[in-house]
Design a protein that fits this description.
By secondary structure, this protein is mostly beta strands. The chain has one helix and eleven strands. The strands form three sheets. The chain has a five-stranded antiparallel beta sheet with strand order 3-4-11-9-6, with no helix packed on it. Strands 8-7-5-10 form a four-stranded antiparallel beta sheet, with no helix packed on it. It is rod-shaped and about 90 Å long.
Length: 166
């Protein structure tokens, strides 16, 4: 190999974005041309993701002081915090955190069974990372059932209240 061929190989390696090394070996001759790692540009790799199967939700019996189940993968709904179940609407948790029915222990609950709610009315607070987030109703109707005990952990998309729409 002459110097001109070696120069051409060096130019080739430096001009190619995704080639980092060329190695040529003959009987009594070995040539390795390496590009510094910071000059190698990897071609984008496309990974096709497949959706994991979603297990069917089983009815949850309320038990005192049980840890919350891990978050489940759920399809995005049109309204992420409300889902219709028969003639009832479920208000769901929009985040992971601790569920509180009132603003403080000495204050009354935001809503109780039988209370009327309207869109924008606060129904509870969820504490996430030391931030207290008021959760507002997205539906109008009457609270039929509170599904979570006060000061218990909740998961994303976990049902909190059942509401009978107006």
């Amino acid at each position: 190999m002459d110097i001109k061929e070696i120069e051409n190989l060096i130019k080739f390696v430096s001009s190619q974005k995704n080639v980092g090394e060329v190695e040529i070996e003959k009987k009594d001759f070995k040539l390795v041309i390496r590009k510094p790692a910071n000059q190698i540009i990897q071609a984008p790799q496309y990974i096709q993701a497949t959706a994991a199967p979603v297990p069917a939700q089983l009815p949850v019996a309320s038990a005192p002081a049980t840890p919350a189940a891990p978050a489940q993968i759920a399809e995005q709904k049109e309204t992420p915090s409300a889902e219709t179940a028969g003639n009832l609407v479920t208000i769901k948790s929009p985040m992971i955190g601790t569920f509180y029915r009132s603003a403080s222990p000495d204050k009354p609950a935001f809503v109780s069974v039988g209370d009327e709610v309207k869109p924008g009315k606060a129904v509870c607070i969820i504490e996430a990372m030391k931030l207290f987030n008021e959760i507002e109703s997205e539906v109008s109707g009457k609270i039929v059932k509170v599904l979570v005990d006060n000061a218990t952990p909740v998961e994303y998309d976990q049902p909190l209240f059942l509401v009978e729409p107006n």
